[in-house]
């Protein structure tokens, strides 16, 4: 029986990939922050060379727009600043939008004639379609963080059935 310290796993199995990490920035709760947040997330992913599939990227950017818009529209009175946090794992990402407003929203399906009200429902749908998950967590300051976690690549779809 060999003695001595146990063998270490190869470095490629233990060290994080170059793009893994957490990035956080704040923005004023203003309409102008919606495209700024979307562009910042897109640019960060490009700079870090994160291998996100195009269809996941499209969904992610729409999710960022919806969540920042909701924070601007519904939380600005109690939260003049919002925070955007992007967490990158080996093959997944999580986007979280945090504000200081204590109200926890619910995803509602809006009627056809409604102009708004579909944002969180859309976030839930996009996240589920990509094979991810989403949720709302209370923060230490009494506010909330609404987050969506997505894989870098869409779920494999089964081939169409031939009749």
TrEMBL record:
<keyword id="KW-0808">Transferase</keyword>
<dbReference type="InterPro" id="IPR036890">
    <property type="entry name" value="HATPase_C_sf"/>
</dbReference>
<keyword id="KW-0723">Serine/threonine-protein kinase</keyword>
<feature type="domain" description="Histidine kinase/HSP90-like ATPase">
    <location>
        <begin position="28"/>
        <end position="129"/>
    </location>
</feature>
<keyword id="KW-0547">Nucleotide-binding</keyword>
<protein>
    <submittedName>
        <fullName>ATP-binding protein</fullName>
    </submittedName>
</protein>
<keyword id="KW-0418">Kinase</keyword>
<dbReference type="Pfam" id="PF13581">
    <property type="entry name" value="HATPase_c_2"/>
</dbReference>
<dbReference type="InterPro" id="IPR003594">
    <property type="entry name" value="HATPase_dom"/>
</dbReference>
<keyword id="KW-0067">ATP-binding</keyword>
<dbReference type="InterPro" id="IPR050267">
    <property type="entry name" value="Anti-sigma-factor_SerPK"/>
</dbReference>
<dbReference type="GO" id="GO:0005524">
    <property type="term" value="F:ATP binding"/>
</dbReference>
């Amino acid at each position: 029986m060999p003695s001595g310290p146990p063998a270490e796993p190869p470095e490629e199995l233990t060290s994080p990939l170059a793009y893994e990490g957490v990035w956080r920035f704040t923005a004023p709760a203003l309409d102008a922050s919606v495209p700024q947040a979307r562009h910042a997330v897109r640019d960060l992913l490009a700079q870090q060379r994160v291998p996100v599939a195009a269809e996941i990227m499209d969904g992610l950017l729409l999710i960022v727009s919806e969540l920042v818009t909701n924070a601007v529209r519904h939380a600005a009175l109690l939260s003049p600043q919002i925070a955007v946090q992007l967490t990158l794992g080996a093959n997944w990402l999580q986007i979280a939008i945090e504000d200081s407003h204590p109200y926890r929203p619910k995803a509602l399906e809006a009627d056809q004639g409604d102009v708004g009200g579909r944002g969180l429902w859309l976030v839930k749908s996009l996240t589920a379609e990509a094979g991810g998950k989403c949720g709302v967590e209370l923060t230490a300051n009494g506010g909330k963080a609404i987050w969506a976690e997505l894989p870098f690549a869409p779920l494999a779809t089964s081939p169409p059935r031939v009749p």
